[in-house]
Amino acid sequence: MRIAICDDEKRFTRDFSAIVDRFYKSMDMVVDEYQNGLDLLKGFSRFKYDIVFLDIEMPGIDGITTARKIREINEEVFIVFLTGHVEYAIKGYEVNALRYLTKPATEDSIHEILKHVLEKKNKEKFLWVKNKDIEKKIKYSDIVYIEAQDKNVVIYTTSESIEVRGRLNDYEDMMQADGFFRVHRSYMVSLSKIMSISGSEITVAGGYRILLAKAKEKEFREAFMSFVHKEAF
Amino acid sequence: MDPSKVMIGLLISILITGFIILLLITVSSVIKCFYDETVCFSKKRVMIFGGVTFAVVLGCLFPAVLTDDKALYVLLIPGVILTVFLIGPIIMSQGRKKRIKQYIESILLYNVAIHYLLLYSLCIATLVYLVLTKLKVTALINLFLVKTGATDMAGAVSLSMLILALLIIPVLLIGVYLWVYLSFVEKDITLPMRKNDTALFVGLHFLNLFICFMSTADGSTTQSSVVYVSVKLLMTALLVILPVLVVKGRQTVYYNELSTRNEQFLEAELVAADTYRKAQDDTRAFRHDMNNNLAAVVSLMSERKYSDAEDYLRSLSTNLASFSPSVVTGDDMLDSLISSKLPVMKEKRIEFLSKGIIDGGLKWKPIDICAVFANLLDNAIEACDRVSVEKRYIHMSIMKTEYQQIITIKNSTEHKVDCSVFDSEGRYSTKSDGNNHGYGMKNVKKALQKNGAMMEMGCDDNEFTINIVIMRFDNGGIK
C-alpha cells in the first residue's frame, strides 16, 4: 500500500511516517512525504497512491484545491483531510473525503483509517465477464446493477454496460452476500450505489431508475439499513 | 306539452345537476387532500373534469326530466361510470404526452389503484343517491302538477320548503367547496385528516346510499315525500360538510403540533444567536488581553526565562481552544440545536459525545432538522433521566458510505426498552402527557420520510439505539 502525506510542517509529516512504521513494519507500506500541494500532484503522476493525508491549511494551493486536482487524476484514492479546526473542513464533501482529522492526529485515528482502507482493499472481489467481444474482470464495487434480459444479463457499471450469457438467479446466489440485492424479477442492485428510494422506485448511481417489487420492499429496506450500518465508516 | 312543466323541469334539473357537480368536485378535492401525492388535481384538471362530467350528467338528466322515463336512468349510471373511469384519470394523471401510458402504469401500482378506486366509488355513490333522490323529486313535481296546488295549503308550504332547500344547499356547498379549494387545493396543503376519519366518511356515504335504495317505494303521501326528499338532501349536504368539520377539528390539533415544532426551532435559533454574541464578547476580551499577554511573554523572553515563556504560551493556546465551537457536526442548524440541549444535559450530568461530520451538511429545511433531532435528543435525555447519574450518556456518531450517510444516536436506559411501544404510527406512548408528546416520534418519521431518510430502532439491555440513514445525493444530482 502506498501512502502520501502532505503537510507544510516537516515535523508533522515525520511524526506521521513514524506512526505508520510503528504499526506496519512491512515493506508493503510505503509513506511518501510532501511539503506542498504542487509536489504532491507531481507525485501523483508518478505513483499510484491508495490513500493521501492532506493538510487543509497550507501556503500556496490549499488542501481542498489540491484534493480537487487529485480527483481529476485519480477517482479512487482515499483522501483524509488534516485540519486545525474541523469546522473549516466541511467543504470537503465535494471531493468525497474519507475522514477529517483534527491536528495533531492521534495514533489511534490514523491506525483506524489505515485498517479500514486495508480491509477494503483486501475484501475487494472481482467478477469475470466474457462475451464474444471482450473478456475482462470487473470490480464488485464498480457494478451499479444487473438486469436480466431473456437468456442474458446486462451488467451496468459506473462507466459501461456489458451483456453476457447467464441467469440472474446464478448472479444472485453468487453476489447477494456482498452487498447486492434482488429488488425485482429482472433487477439486482448494488446496495452501495443506491442514491434514493421512493415508493416503488430506486435511483442508483448514474441516475438509473429501477423498479422495486412490492413484495420485496420490506426485506429490501431491512437489508439496506443493515448494509449501510455495516459498511459506513 | 305544458310550457310551465318544461320550465320547472328544466329549473330543477339544473339545480340538481349543479348540486351533483359541486358534490363531485368537493368530494374529489377532499380526497385529493388525503392523498396529495398520488392523485394530482390542479385547477385546470378540476375544471376540465368538472366540465366533462357536467356535460354528461346534464345530457342524461334533461331528457329524463321531460319524459320521466326510468329506463334512461338505467343508461345514465353506467354511462357516467364509464366516463369517470375513462376520461377522469386521463385528464387528472400527471404529465401531458404520456397520460394514458402513465395512467395504466399507475393503476398497476397497488396503492394508487386503491386511491383511484376510493375516489371513483365515492363519486359514483354520491351520483347514484342523488339520482335516486332526483327520481323522488321528479315524481313529487308531477304529483303537484296533477293536483290543484293552490288549494292544497300543506302541499304549497312543503313545495316552497323543498325549493328553499334546493336553493340553500347548493349555496352552502359552493361555500364549502370554495373554502376547501382556496385554503387547501390552491395552496397545495395536505389536510391533516386521519385514516379513521376517511373510513367514517366513506362509511357514511355507503350508509346513505343504502338508505336511498331502501326507500324508493312509491305510494306515500305528498308530505312524507317532501320530508323524505328534504332529509335526503340534508343528509347529503351533511356528508359533504362532515369532512370539513372533522378537518377543522383536526386543524387545531395540527397547529398545536406545528407550534411545538416551531418552538423547538426558535429555541435553537436563539441559542445560536446567543452563542454568536458570547463569542463576539469573548473575542473582544481576548483581543484586549492579547496585548498584555504578549508584553508578558516579551518580558519573560528578555529575562531569558524561556521555559516560563513556553509555559505561558501553552496556557494561552489552551485558552484559545475554548473559542472553538462546542459541537461540530457539519451542519450549522444541527450544531445550534445540539448546543441548545447542552445546558440541560450538563445539568442532568449526561455525557454527550459527537463523532464524525455530515459531509456538506444536511440539505434539509431547518424545521425538519429540528423536528428530527430535537425530538430524538429530548427522548434520549428523558430516558437518561431515569438512569442513575453515573451511567447517563448520549453518544452520537456520523458515518458514511459512498452514497449514504448514517447517524447513530445511542443513549443509556434503565432497562430494556420495549421497541413495540413505538407503534405503527410511531407514537412513543410511555410518556404520560400523551396529548403533546405523542407527536414526537410521528413528527420524526414524517420529517425523515419527507427527506427520503430512513430510521431503525434497536433496543439492548442498557442501551437504546436509533439509526438514521440519509441519502447523500438525493436529488438526482451527480456525485
Short description:
The complex is a heterodimer of chains A (233) and B (479). Chain A is of the alpha/beta class and 233 residues long.
Sheet with most strands of chain A = 5 strands, parallel
Task: Indicate the mean pLDDT of chain A.
Answer: 86
Separate helix tally of chain B: 13
Portion of residues in helices of chain A? 25-40%
Overview of this structure, please?
The complex is a heterodimer of chains A (233) and B (479). Chain A has helices at 10-23, 37-46, 63-73, 107-123, 168-175, 217-231, and strands at residues 2-6, 30-34, 51-55, 78-83, 99-102, 126-130, 135-139, 143-149, 152-157, 161-165, 180-184, 187-190, 194-198, 201-204, 209-211. Chain A contains six helices and 15 strands. Helix content of chain A is 32%, strand content 32%. Chain B has helices at residues 3-34, 43-67, 70-92, 99-108, 110-146, 153-185, 195-214, 222-302, 306-321, 332-347, 366-385, 434-437, 439-450; strands at residues 351-355, 393-400, 404-412, 454-459, 463-471. Chain B contains 13 helices and five strands. In chain B, 69% of the residues lie in helices and 8% in strands. A five-stranded mixed beta sheet of chain B has the order 1-2-3-5-4, with helices on one face. In chain B, α1 (3-34) runs antiparallel to α2 (43-67), α5 (110-146) runs parallel beside α7 (195-214) and α8 (222-302) crosses α10. Mean pLDDT of chain B is 66; it is low at 32-41, 62-67, 93-98 and 423-438. The A-B interface holds A 85-87, 89-94, 96-97, 100, 192-200, 203, 205, 207, 214, 221, 224-225, 228-229, 231-233 and B 109-111, 324-325, 328, 330, 357, 359-361, 399-406, 452, 454, 456, 467, 469, 471-476, 479.
